[in-house]
Amino acid sequence: MQQRVKYYQTGTFTVGNRLLDEEKRTVQATKERNNSLTCGHRACQGCGEALGARFAIDAAMNAVNNKLIAVNATGCLEVFSTPYPESSWRIPWIHSLFGNAPAVATGVAAALRARGETKTRVIAQGGDGGTVDIGFGCLSGMFERNDDVLYICYDNEAYMNTGVQRSSRTPPGARTATTPPVGEHPGNSYNQGKNPALIAMAHNIPYVATASVADLHDLEDKVEKAMSISGARYVHIHVPCPLGWGAKPSNTIRLARLAIETGLFPLFEAEDGEIVDTTPIRKQQPVDEYLKLQRRFAHILKDPLALETIQAMADRNISRFNLVREMEVTNNG
Amino acid sequence: MDKPFAITLDIESSYSNHTGSWRTERPVYIDRLPPCNDACPAGENIQGWLHEAEEGKYENAWRILVRDNPMPGVHGRVCYHPCENACNRQQIDSAVSIHAVERFLGDQALKHGWKVEAGKDSGKKVAIIGAGPSGLSAAWHLRLMGHQVVIFEAGPMAGGMMRFGIPKYRLPREVLDEEISRICDLGVEIKLNSKIDDIPALMDEGFDAVFVAIGAHVARRTDIPARDAGTILDAVSVLQNVETGDTPPLLGRRVIVYGGGNTAFDTARTAKRLGASETMIVYRRNQEQMPAHDFEMHEAVDEGIMVRWLSTIKEIDDTSYKIEKMRLNDEGWPEPTGEFETIEADTLILALGQTTDSSFLEKLDGVEVERNGVVKVDESMMTGFPGVFAGGDMVPADRTVTTATGHGKLAARNIDAWMRGEKWQAGDRHEIAGFKHINPWYYTDAPKKLQPVLDIARRQSTFTEVVKGLDEDNALFEARRCLSCGNCFECDNCYGMCPDNSVIKLGPGKGFEFNYDFCKGCGLCAAECPCGAITMIKEPE
Amino acid sequence: MLKQIEGSKAVAEAIALCRPEVISAYPITPQTHIVEDLSQIVKKGALGNCQYINVESEFAAMSCVIGASATGARAYTATSSQGLLFMAEAVYNASGMGLPIVMTLGNRAIGAPINIWNDHSDSMSMANSGWIQLHAETNQEAVDLHIIAFRLAEQLSVPVMVCMDGFILTHAYERVDIPTQEQVDNFLPKFEPVQMLDPDEPLTMGAMVGPEAFTEVRYLSHHKQLQALEVIPQLASEFEKQFGRKSGAMVDPYHTIDADTVVVSLGSINGTIKDTIDILREDRCSIGSVKLGAFRPFPLAELREALSGARRVIVVEKDVALGLGGIVASNVRMALRGTSTPVYTIIAGLGGRPIPSKSLDKAFRQAMDDDIEDPLFLDLNHEVIDRELARMKEQRRSGPVAENILREIGLVGHSPRKV
């Protein structure tokens, strides 16, 4: 894999870079970015989802000339952004229910098509609970019909809005309000997990990607690419939750980065059901570097077997998605 | 608006919800002191000029550089760059090759003939004694402040140790000459072959202040029992003669240089170039204790110079030199072993250090002179005699070109203030930006660019410059390896990563501001600032 | 144009004449024929750009039309029974957001026991969801009510459910006058939403509302229903002028002027009731009927007026509020509050049980003698009930009551146990 731009002071990893051509900078680096989710919202300090939503929606807005409608599932994002009488959104936005965002989006897209409005595009978005659990039927239906909707899941790995209960995205061993760290097998069960991106791929939809708030360039590229394609698309974004994970609000990006660097959250993209690219790990880290910053895993750190199991999960991702490999670096000149 | 009540809202109505009230800590932008700047004896704003160079704005970079140091072409070649030893990038891969970029900028300036203007005439006049790096530097800065400057140089050429102590294969004379003439172009008069003995008389001629920077060029000698001594020279005169070409030294085929400093190595390498086929350095301590820089030794060894560590010369009998082996005692000091051997050599060159002849200053009331002619100065570089300042190798400090250049700047500032009846105050020093303030993840891997080196055969026979400069691409690359420690370089991380849109981007070169109406104080901006230019402070009551 | 046509097909044609832009549905008996016919119409291109979305559930169907309606499209769906319950959350959501969706409900019982036949349990489950509920007596009325429903929904920004009895209407072939496109276009203007998702005028729809404004939001929804009480009769009268027939009356009286006893009902059963009244009146009984054209809003004042001369009221309804009795009857009592007029409840036609005129005749006579059980479960098989109750008493354990009853009456295999 080639580093996408020539070497610059801090390469491509910062949000902006005064040394880059303007079109190679991120949308977030521009003064003109839309701030689709703007200030005054009531997300907790250091909220990864608030960040992920602005990253993704601004990128999408930029890609479609600001012709965008968003449908939002019930959840933190919805609650913190639209409590009467204040909305933090700067785009046409609708919230209907917890489990129906994909179907509502289908309806929005259908209405646009019916009215011959071809320029406006539709995004549906929700947290992991709204997407991977309660909304999964609607999501699969939307995929299967190949409706012209980009669905974005902001995955913070539990039901945070209701007070941190387990979802099907909660990682093994994690403490939540419904998987307390007591008994013989403390924390969440060591189950098989549920990978919605891989399930999305099984629908053979044109585009599926995973992304992270820790890699903005990658995230924006993926959203932009998704918006250039019609049909059903799915982008799954990893967004740490300081409150739910028991982490410092200032560690949000660091945690997302460590999830990538440990291999626990692999970044990849797929077209028409086939993986076409994965993002290699820059500096591989052992899983405990990630786990130790989160109180939800405090009990894991004292349990070598649990640690080993989680490391094995990371290793499996690394080999499955070929995450550790030589990177060709394009130097200047 | 005919919209349903409450359940439909106007966009961006949340602006009325000032979430800044949640905050217990707030982020603030700060400038930390980059470790390179901190380490620079000339006080250069290295990070500042690298910032400009990164954008390819070389002239801007040069202009920032010469605010502190008028001779980047020289320093890019001869400075021992303590900045690079301090560079935080060492902990990622290797230090930024600051000297190479400095040299590139210096050469660009000469190529393009970049000039600066002298300051508005102040009506004050300063005499400088000695046209070495310190005197030239002081002259430059004083001219920028608008003062009249005359330099009195005892020797036949300007440059001091830059010319008479550093061989031209390290510092080509065109570079030195052009950088000196750029100083002269500012309106500095240099009177060569003008030795000053009477400073009060000089001041009577209308000089408001005097800066003495005569260096240390009196070779230190040692007593070695000699029955029938062969040729014994001192390093300073060898190098000087090579430079002036007056009396080219006849060294013979076999040369011993006695000493372990940079001058010893420079002399040995010069001897090699003058035709000595066997050149050996004899030094009484070991490699770790040698004052010369490692690169000097490596370059010398590459060129075929031999080094005998832990050896002293006990006796000389014509061309026979009796060497005694030393060993380190428990305190690490060398002590004799009683083991001897004999080496044949045509010439011995002593490179045992230099002292200053400051007898003419001792006459002045209040001036204190220490051992070896070192003159005491206060924190404003002034001697005990009002209006007489001193700097460079003749005052207690590291004896390097860069330190001397820094003294020149410092003296100029103090002289300027003193002439106005004031006292110059240094600004507050910011906290140093350490590696702990850096978020290294954001910096891409970028191995250092190496400067090309002349082939060995030519190095052994000519005075052609050994180390070449970087071309523009590589110089730019090198500049861009800078981490910008402690100083915002507008990477937009804070702006992009604030979950609350509470960072206002002011535009290129203007940086950012926090919008405390909405900032919740999460600290993400500070945590993700690559260079440590944001800190969190307790929210004011 | 007069056609001998299946009710579902007639309704599908009527919907098509209303030029829907988005149709989304999920198959469930007995509504299915309507959306099957519509899919044909759309696929043939008769509705231009109309989008027909086959979704994976009723929940998705309602959600899809919510999205479409919020984006300014005229949107339609249909369901029945379990389907309505499965979309329940979205049903409330559509009305909460004031989206003018029209939905046909092919009324059907709710399980368990699973039962595909007609009663009103489904629509009654959503009676308080904020939707307007219109009930058709005939297929002609079903056709007409859909045309009125779109106009009503869009005028008030409120969703409208048109209820038609499953099988009895949906699958019945009757003579129906299908209006022309021109007639419908004249009656139903282009949809102009009061709010919609539009990048040129962004807004936030579906905000979270706390205690400080929730009551007001609910009051305004209630107010919309009250407005409908006035708008529906206006539209009915306008409809009559344009189409030349009466449809959409909130309260439709039959021989009430001189009647001591008035029977109140919803939907198609009114036909049988009127037949029974004719027989009873021949027998000099002072009896009439009132058909309710809408269950929500409930026409309290208009009904009270219509029942003002009655000495007693009988409500025949196809649903039951378990543990209470009649649902419609309770609403009728509300209309008569403050009077001493007794209201008798006849629970009839549950799960598709036929409602013979003979049984109604008998029950009405008992009521006219003020000697009727309340509620009366019409044609209840007391023998079966008594046996099952006795068995339960003996065995002191519950069980699959439905299965036991079916065994008792011999519809499924013999009971393994000899009682």
- Alpha plus pi helix count of chain B: 19
The name of the CATH superfamily of the largest domain in chain B reads: FAD/NAD(P)-binding domain
What's the N-to-C terminus distance of chain A? 18 Å
Gyration radius of chain A, in Å: 19 Å
Tell me the fraction of residues in β-strands of chain A, as a range: 5-15%
**How many domains, in number, for the residues of chain B?**
4
How would you characterize the overall build of this protein?
The complex is a heterotrimer of chains A (333), B (541) and C (419). Chain A has an 8-stranded mixed beta sheet, with helices on both faces. Chain A is an alpha/beta fold. Chain A has one domain (22-320): Rossmann fold, CATH 3.40.50.970. Chain A has 11 helices and 8 strands. Mean pLDDT of chain A is 93; it is low at 1-6. Helices cover 32% and strands 13% of the residues of chain A. In chain A, helix 1 crosses helix 7 (216-227) and helix 3 packs parallel to helix 5 (136-145). Chain B has 4 domains: 13-31 and 488-538, Alpha-Beta Plaits; 36-114 and 444-479, Orthogonal Bundle (Fumarate Reductase Iron-sulfur Protein, Chain B, domain 2); 125-217 and 360-419, FAD/NAD(P)-binding domain; 219-354, FAD/NAD(P)-binding domain (3-Layer(bba) Sandwich), CATH 3.50.50.60. Chain B contains 19 helices and 21 strands. In chain B, the strands form 6 sheets. Chain B has a 5-stranded parallel beta sheet. Chain B has a 5-stranded parallel beta sheet with strand order 9-16-10-11-12. In chain B, helix 2 (46-54) packs antiparallel against helix 3 and helix 6 (98-112) packs across helix 17 (472-479). By secondary structure, chain C is an alpha/beta fold. Chain C has 3 domains: 2-196 and 209-243, Rossmann fold (3-Layer(aba) Sandwich), CATH 3.40.50.970; 251-377, Rossmann fold, CATH 3.40.50; 383-419, no CATH class. Helix content of chain C is 42%, strand content 18%. In chain C, helix 12 (327-335) links the parallel strand 14 (312-317) and strand 15 (343-347). Chain C is globular. Mean pLDDT of chain C is 95; it is low at 415-419. Chains in contact: A-B, A-C, B-C. At the A-B interface, helix 1 and helix 9 of A face helix 17, helix 18 and helix 19 of B.
